[in-house]
Amino acid sequence: MKVLVMNCGSSSLKYQLINMENEELLAKGIAERIGIEGSFVKHETTGKEKAVIEEPMTDHKAAIKIVLEALIHAEYGAIQSMSEITAVGHRVVHGGEKFSGSVVIDKEVKAVLEECSELAPLHNPPNLMGIYACEEILPNVPMVGVFDTAFHQTMPKASYMYALPYDLYEKYKIRRYGFHGTSHKYVAMKAAELLGQPLESLKIVTCHLGNGASVTAIKNGKSVDTSMGFTPLEGLAMGTRCGDLDPAIIEFWMKKENLTIAEVNNAMNKKSGVLGISGVSSDFRDVEEAANAGNERAQLALDFYYQRVKKYIGAYAAEMGGLDAVVFTAGLGENSIVARKEICKDLEFLGIKIDDEKNSIRGKETVVSTEDSTVKVILVPTNEELMIARETKALVG
């Protein structure tokens, strides 16, 4: 069984083809600048030379056609024909309250996804474009939707409600949804494997730390709280997102700078976070380099970030009544030795002791805490595409 995993953005499309008999990655790539001049596809089949295909891509349908042609290409393809693709698994950012798990996509599911586009206007529309395009090009191949929000649907009501007039929840479903659910689920399962214990018996805090970042409390295998909220703006400060904020600042800011709500919203999403504080970059590697060179604002941005992650770990340990493991994943979590060390610093009272030698590693599945650390610190490279493929196989395999 070969599953094609699709992750459609507004002007990009990431994909992987995975053989689910042995979970072998057959090919992967990305189509960039869809609908923009200078579009191209970077394609890589395992064991073959990489290929760059420079062709106009007016929309997602055109991009998917080029991707499929690359997959069956005589020189750098991975399969003989499109008939070898058993199913397509689509990453969908927002499933609202409708979906607590992955689903086979049908007419009713697409209608609900259209409704959820109001909750994720930057993400769901391109996700839907990918679904419609795949249906047209691969009309007899089953499609599965895997939602970033689904894993968090196990949160108790006290964790996902906002202290606003209750009718806003009843009428508009204004509540915390959480995101990165596929990643949090995957790394929690991997952490349980490394510990040799069933996930259902553990209390874990997973830290997905990348340009977008979130922390999740997982108790007995279920998400019970998470840092992102109604949108991915809430929670940790991120590369360009502000994270938690006193909402009264927005009106004050608008009046002082004579800004519209759209302008402030854009600034909170694209000009804030680590970029906003440091003035250097949204890329933590650049910020770390600047801090090491003596840039005080860059160091402040890092200190601010580490403190916020630490605060969520402590809060979630209290909320779950204990803690067995902290898991780091995504770009920063997997690769920054300094970030993991600084976040775990002063958490010894919780039983967290990081081993400097073990922690001097990047992108490898391993335990980086000391032998006597009662709370294990674990590094797990995330693999959302494999998780999507597994969910797809479970539904249509």
From TrEMBL:
GO terms for molecular function: acetate kinase activity; ATP binding; magnesium ion binding. The keyword Metal-binding applies. Pfam families: Acetate_kinase (PF00871). It comes from the Bacteria. Pathway: Metabolic intermediate biosynthesis; acetyl-CoA biosynthesis; acetyl-CoA from acetate: step 1/2. It is found in: Cytoplasm. The keyword Metal-binding applies. It catalyses: acetate + ATP = acetyl phosphate + ADP. Mg(2+) binds at N7, E384. This is Acetate kinase. It comes from Anaerovirgula multivorans. The gene is ackA.
